[in-house]
Design goal:
heterodimer, A: Ubiquitin-like (UB roll), Fumarate Reductase Iron-sulfur Protein, Chain B, domain 2, 2 domains, B: Flavocytochrome C3, Chain A, domain 1, Methane Monooxygenase Hydroxylase, Chain G, domain 1, seven-stranded mixed sheet, 18 strands, globular
């Protein structure tokens, strides 16, 4: 069907004007004041401090924090980079809920009372809203790296279908904001950072395990050193993920099933015994279950 | 005497985006000991925001593509001010660099036969951008990061460099501070790779993050290196304009690559009105042909929305200035119209442009599958930077290298979308390789702690002043001034006013004071970043004053046409003996005949 340029474009404009007008009502240039209770300090002297600043409703929490910073608290420590939900730097707890400050619009919050903005509590505090998230970087080092099968084509390239790519592309959307780590009770309440790599790193392990090209089998690692058994599938991580990754259902549960298949399935154990293979095989001896098509 | 944490590396890489990571990996592969400095946490650098894709003539989607066409496209886009050797190397090597990422775990979108999928983008003759939806930069930086952490590279996170150190004429290292504790770090290095990105924070409407304060440009300039093409700042045609708090956030060119159209308030698809002569042969002259192009019809020519960024940005500004803009001072960008063409348009848009869908839904209450977006130009990229040797990426200072946005040459007067991610890979690798080679030939440099002491003392001065000005205020005024006077449309009288304003801003910056202590103190960091911002702002203004014509990213209201005489040289800026800025015109070397012929063949 050929498009009728003028009538068609006019409808675009009408729709755009409507959208702009509608945004006008919810995001007017008129300002009002709002209060924020922001965590200040490091160590035991930390406390919530109240700041009041002008806001307009198109603003996000990070805008308000920046405004407070430039007006009255120049040394207010906060991490941020892209301000567009792509880098995962500005994670915090807003009214107690782990969220990205750059993607939390003030219009979603009740501004009739102060908005609490606190650092992620699962990690050691550096100062104000900044925490020490280095444990996540160390945990990643414990997961064995991507190891591809030999190339499929003589020119050194691989072939994979989009349907196979889809599965890991979901996990590779992760922006490493660590909000899932923050909300995970194993890390937050029990502080088992050394025993349990946490949801973010299980998503990382899942993208490696389900990667169409990867040939390593990390099942033993998942059980023995990544502590996957600590996860009891409360799905809190999935709820806070700003990238909407189905962390529990799509990443963690399939990994748990692999561990269960290898360690706790009596029939499978019998089959392996009869085939004369060890329960734990050296890497590279086989492709992983369901992978490497 | 300030105290230092001391580190010694063969190669010190400053910046950990795509270029820095790729350089560090290559230097480590060469056997050098490598230090990698991130201004933020690892994996958060600006590369993460790149959306559309990485340009490489893989010819997976259109087998007519090859490095020659990519070379010709890059030179045409850069209006022939490019360093042609870099454009040649880039076009030749980009495909290998992209395939290498796949070997390191990147999962690009696929063609039906299982190869890396490529999409259309402005100024590229054939579908050339390997991509992952609209989050290609994230895929790239995560792949490089996850590869690099298993290499012998010392990563210094949240560390800002305030000065390079020299031993006579050669590079000797750098001085920085860590954000967390505010302690000074003294790095000794046989060679240094700058990979610090751009200067976007010198302007108020920008797609760039707080990090983009031109640190590498200023470090190189102060170390005596030459900078070139600094008048060429790319204003990306499509940034968000509403609500005010998101103004400047990028809307990927991929929207137009997937068939998105630009419309003014009168409903006119204005991009058809003014198609530049040198692109006329390659541009569709009707809407139907443009649509067919975006859907992969090899016989169709590209729609005018996919002309180069400089042209599209100016066309949008023209609509706005002449009163035909959208309600909030932009124009409409519409992708939802493809519903009339595709039965599964809604899902298609969400699949191809997922982060655009979320960005508008969450930040502006706009559903891009059913409503148009409002967009306008935003400061995005600087084509100019450190003048380097095309093969080695070494600057005019021995041992000092530059790669990625901080380097200059590849893009000339205007960068094509997608050529930045490939730039990072190609020249990141080259810089790392040659920096390691250079380091291998050197003895350990002598680090003059007196040099470092001076910088360290100066860096702490804002704490000693009382009742000085707020650094955020000075930064804000600088950004507003640059946006107004040296922004997308320039003229001599305004640039001169900008240079006067910069003098006053410099005095104000000398008097800022900060409260609190040295631990994770953003006020202090802003005070220090201001020095770089002021330096690069002045460099941009002086270069813009010198180029009395309009070309690529540089538009002069008082000289609105291109002047062929200005096509023969680059404008080069370096620090003079007595600290003054020296502006010179340096002729572009004669292009090799075989490359000239390629350009002729692709006209």
């Amino acid at each position: 069907m050929a498009v009728q340029p003028q009538t068609f474009a006019s409808s675009i404009v009408a729709s755009g004007q409507r959208a702009a007008a509608r945004t006008d009502t919810s995001a007017g240039t008129t300002t009002r004041t709002a209060s924020f209770e922001v965590w200040r300090g490091s160590g035991p002297s930390g406390r919530l401090e109240t700041y009041t600043t002008n806001v307009s409703e198109g603003m996000v929490v990070l805008d308000a924090i920046h405004q407070i910073q430039s007006e009255s608290a120049t040394d207010l420590a906060v991490r941020w980079n892209c301000k567009a939900g792509k880098c995962g730097s500005c994670s915090a707890e807003i009214n107690g809920i782990p969220r990205l400050m750059c993607m939390t619009r003030l219009s979603e919050l009740d501004l009739s009372k102060p908005v609490a903005v606190e650092p992620m509590r699962a990690f050691p505090l550096v100062r104000d809203l900044v925490t020490d998230v280095s444990s996540n970087f160390r945990a990643k080092m414990r997961i064995r790296k991507f190891t591809p099968r030999p190339p499929d084509a003589p020119d050194g390239t691989w072939r994979m279908q989009q349907s196979d790519a889809d599965r890991v592309q979901e996990f590779r959307k992760c922006i490493e904001c660590f909000l899932c780590q923050d909300v995970c009770h194993v890390l937050r309440d029990h502080q088992l950072h050394e025993q349990f790599v946490g949801p973010r790193l299980l998503v990382h392990a899942a993208q490696l395990e389900m990667h169409p090209l990867d040939v390593l089998d990390r099942t033993t690692d998942l059980k023995e050193s990544h502590g996957i058994g600590y996860c009891n599938i409360t799905k809190c991580c999935t709820k806070v993920c700003p990238e909407h990754i189905t962390i529990t259902d799509n990443a963690i549960i399939p990994l748990k099933e692999r561990v269960a298949d290898q360690y706790y399935d009596p029939l499978g154990k019998l089959v392996r015994l009869m085939r004369g293979k060890k329960a734990v095989r050296p890497e590279n001896e086989r492709t992983k279950p369901g992978g490497a098509r | 005497m300030p105290e230092y944490q001391k580190h010694e590396h063969d190669v010190l890489v400053i910046g950990a985006g795509g270029a820095g990571l790729r350089a560090a990996i290559e230097a480590a592969h060469s056997g050098a000991s490598v230090g990698l400095i991130c201004k933020s946490l690892l994996g958060k650098a600006h590369t993460v925001m790149a959306e559309g894709g990485v340009a490489a003539a893989l010819a997976n989607v259109d087998d007519r593509d090859n490095w020659r066409v990519h070379f010709a496209d890059t030179m045409r886009g850069g209006q022939y001010l490019n360093n042609w050797r870099m454009a040649e190397l880039h076009a030749k090597e980009a495909p290998d660099r992209v395939r290498e990422l796949e070997a390191w775990g990147a999962v690009f979108d696929r063609t039906p036969d299982g190869r890396i999928l490529q999409r259309n983008f402005g100024g590229h003759k054939y579908p050339r951008l390997a991509h992952v939806g609209d989050r290609t930069g994230l895929e790239m930086i995560r792949t490089l990061q996850d590869y690099a952490v298993y290499q012998p590279i010392d990563v210094h996170m949240e560390c800002t460099i305030v000065s390079l150190l020299k031993d006579e004429n050669r590079i000797a290292g750098a001085l920085g501070y860590d954000r967390e504790r505010g302690r000074f770090k003294l790095f000794a290095a046989k060679s240094v790779v700058l990979a610090t990105g751009g200067i976007g924070r010198a302007f108020s409407v920008t797609s760039n993050s707080w990090e983009y304060t031109g640190d590498g440009h200023a470090l190189a300039y102060n170390a005596g290196a030459a900078l070139q093409d600094m008048e060429f700042v790319q204003f990306h045609p499509t940034g968000m304009v509403w609500p005010p708090s998101v103004r400047g956030i990028l809307v990927t060119e991929g929207v137009r690559g997937e068939g998105g159209i630009l419309v003014n308030r009168d409903g006119r698809r204005f991009m058809f009105d003014d198609i530049p002569e040198n692109y006329r042969n390659q541009t569709a002259d009707n809407e139907e042909e443009g649509w067919r192009y975006t859907q992969g019809d090899k016989n169709a020519r590209r729609p005018p929305e996919l002309l180069t960024r400089d042209h599209v940005a100016r066309a949008i500004m023209k609509e706005v200035r002449e009163g035909r803009g959208s309600p909030h001072g932009g124009v409409f960008l519409d992708i939802s119209w493809i519903k009339s063409k595709l039965s599964n348009a809604e899902d298609h848009i969400k699949k191809k442009l997922p982060s655009m869908y979320h960005q508008f839904k969450q930040l502006a209450d706009i559903d891009i599958t059913s409503e148009p977006m409002e967009v306008g130009p935003t400061t995005h990229y600087v084509m100019g930077g450190v003048r380097v040797d095309g093969d080695t990426q070494m600057s005019t200072v021995p041992g000092l290298f530059a790669a990625g946005e901080v380097g200059a040459g590849l893009h000339g007067a205007n960068r094509l979308g997608g050529n930045s991610l490939s730039d990072l890979l190609v020249f990141g690798k080259r810089a790392g390789q040659y920096a390691a080679e250079f380091a291998g030939r050197q003895s350990s440099p002598r680090v003059d702690s007196q040099q470092a002491d001076e910088f360290a003392r100066a860096a702490l001065e804002p704490f000693d002043r009382e009742d000085g000005e707020n650094p955020y205020k000075v930064e804000h005024d600088l950004q507003t001034m640059m946006q107004d006077l040296v922004g997308i449309v320039r003229k001599e009288s305004e640039i001169r006013r900008a240079l006067e304003a910069l003098k006053i801003l410099r005095q104000r910056a000398q008097k800022v004071s900060v409260s609190g202590n040295r631990e994770y103190n953003p006020g202090w960091h802003t005070a220090l970043d201001l020095q770089s911002l002021l330096t690069v702002s002045e460099i941009v203004a002086r270069a813009a004053l010198e180029r009395k014509e309009s070309r690529g990213g540089h538009f002069r209201d008082d000289f609105p046409d291109k002047d062929p005489a200005y096509g023969k040289f680059n404008i080069v800026i370096r620090k003079g003996q007595s600290g003054e800025m020296q502006v010179t015109r340096e002729p572009i070397p004669e292009m090799r005949p075989d490359l000239k012929q390629i350009i002729e063949e692709n006209k």
